[in-house]
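Hi R.,

Here's the chain you asked about this morning:
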Amino acid sequence: MDPSDLYVSRSTIKPHPLRPYYTPGLVPNYTSITTNASSSTPSSLGSEAVGSNAHQTLKEYARFAGLKFMTTAVLGPFETGKTLLQVQYLPHEDIEVVAPLATVVPNPVAESRQNDFYSSSEEDEDDSFFTPNVHLRKANHNGSNRSKLPRYNSSYTVRSVYDDTARPAHQLAPIQGGILDAMRALINNPSEGWRALFKGQYTGWLHGMLLLILQPAIEGSLNDLFDLYDDTIPLIHLERIGPNLATLLGSHILVGVFLSPLEIARTRLIVQSSAPGVKTYNGLLHCLSSMLQNEGGLRGVYLSQNLIPTILYHLITPLVSSTAPLIIDRLFHVTASDAPIVYGLAELALSTLEVLITLPIETIRKRIQCQVRFKDGRPFNTCVATRPVHYTGFLDAMYKVMKEEGSSASGRKPAKDEESAKKAAGWGLQGLYKGFSIQCASNVLSSLGHTLNGIEDDLTK
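And here is the predicted structure, written out as tokens:
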């Protein structure tokens, strides 16, 4: 396609006094988050297409949308396995929060009593740092406490995620391994099968396309509003990066919050059980309408516990990725042309730092996204065990994950004080970094590819 057919000629425009050598080109937005779909976007994105060539522009969008959909389909099973690992409740056995097991669906009044029971006070003062305490596994064996449990029928007991006999038929056993183990468990489950690996694929594709279209458009509008440099200029070529970085981050936050219902829907579609009779949502539209009906409308969906982790995630991710070239160039004084290997190692280190920062936020986000309260009191049936007592916020969720799922039960060390050992048994960061190894492996492969391309370019000069 001839570039002149897509872009308005600017040869008659006088050069800007602060950037006399700038010439608009065909380069896409450098500072947007790199997507898994492709390293390039359609040339028409973020530019003004000539009206007479609208048909060609639509063809470009359709071609890119098809490529994005195929890439999403390839990466979808890995994203599904990663999401299941992040949301599943896998606590240390000494401090597990257990769920009541009933033979009938509880009504809202019973559910409220159940939550009141779990939110009552106990001797462990650590949990009161954020929220009222919940009764842990050891408390449920006390006779006086057992009498306070809500009774749905005459045969009442409690259910542990490790209890194979009490586990629902549609729920997977605890997944102790990595993403491949989660994918294998889904395939082997009669209620899920190989099709379950592609749950939420359409929603993920739609979210990715809208993000690629809306974010550059809003960033360009903000730059025009404040009379800043064009967003096609890389930050590394600017002397004052503050204003342009602010519009970049602002556009990502605005679009991220606006599209957050799609992220919530995708997580729930992945996590829900596919078994007939217990499946909660029939698709994206059903999930969105159910959210509006049961969670307080648009105000309840947007101004919920998901707001803070959504803002943090869409702030930190573009901040680290867009400033990485600046740090390598201006702090380390390394360029890709002069030292491609060193540049690749520095890029790998910063991408690993990004994973270390964003993965816990992503984990907490997805756990909060799975907290559903229906007006009729019916449960949200998931294919993996989730925490039976809801988190009250971002900090509470992070604290509880570190306290209850920070280490595995098999790795417990004996201690002289048994009570102190139980309190400290679960502390750690393991629960916040599910899927860390495959993320790092992806970064290594990406960095290796960039380094080899740089070396090849040097040899061909």
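One quick note: The longest strand covers residues 99-101.

Cheers,
M.
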